[in-house]
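Batch manifest, entry 17 of 40.
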Amino acid sequence: MKVVMVEAGGWGGIAHYAWNLCAALAGAGVEVSLLTNRDWELGRLPSLFEVDRCFSPDAGYLGNVSALRDRMARSRPGVVHVQSLLSTRFDALLWPVIRRRRPLVMTIHNVRTHERIRWDDWTLWRCFGAADAVVVHTQRAADVARQRLPAGARIELIHHGDAGFLHGERRPDRLGARAMLDLPSHAKIVLAFGAIRPYKGLHGVIAAVADLRRRHADAWLVIAGPLLVGREDEYREAIRRADVDGAVVFRPRYVPAEEVSAYFAAADVAVFNYRDITDSGSLRLACDLGTPVVATAVGSFREFLTDGVTARLVEPGDTRGLAAALGDVLAHPESAARMAQAAQALAGSAWSWAQSAKATAGLYETLARGGA
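Output type: structure tokens
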């Protein structure tokens, strides 16, 4: 049986997820072909699976649809697995047509559009509803999917795998990572990593670091990730108002894959001050790469993190509590390291790609045989 994996963007967490899953499936004997973007950022990695860079922003939506349908006609896959849509605006009509000829699986990486755009939200769920099965990564996501999908929809809970290919990178030690990224060698670094969007609560992190520096004068905040929603000047103004200009490194740009592990190696703690979430690839990276975590006790964070065991959890909106938890981690590096080790062990077992691939391949076989 041949599987076609569709990941249209070619960059970021979903592209990394698709590469890791394809590699694990190929290693398990599944014939898989990845359809991705012309500007695929992981082209330097060796792969056991076929990669077809058939999508392009220059082709327009109809051009990319044509490229997809051409590949479907040529390869005649037993199953199509969609990781990201060609367009969140227009795909509602596309995938029901694709499903008429072959089983369709869709992974729900986000059960809601982060900025609550109604049309995009409708399109997403129209696509998910067209699938023979959807894959989610947490129980929280599964609960939302049950509420949104028709009764009887097949929902498979298959955990998001670990950092995967990043383990193959030459990861520098802390001082080496800081030198590579031009970060202060002497500081205690709080890392806020990932795409910058309002629901991630970065204004609260900035305020918490201002409080934190009253007890840890050497604490610095590093913000690294593309600015997807909002304006750069509003964040710089928040930094100025908090009077932490000299202790914040603000890099609102996409972090290429080869730099990702260095940021986590450079950090003393990674912070995730999210308002709500059903899963976070960035948080799973922190756990898998051995960086201590402070996160809000919301959504799925409460599902797979235990306060004081694998991370420190605080209530959302509690700036003082967030600053106190960050301070505890910085003040007690040995206990922080034990939490990080426990989270890393969880990532290497329950979140392993081998387990994810085994469950995914089983789903493919069931659907290919016509199973409900």
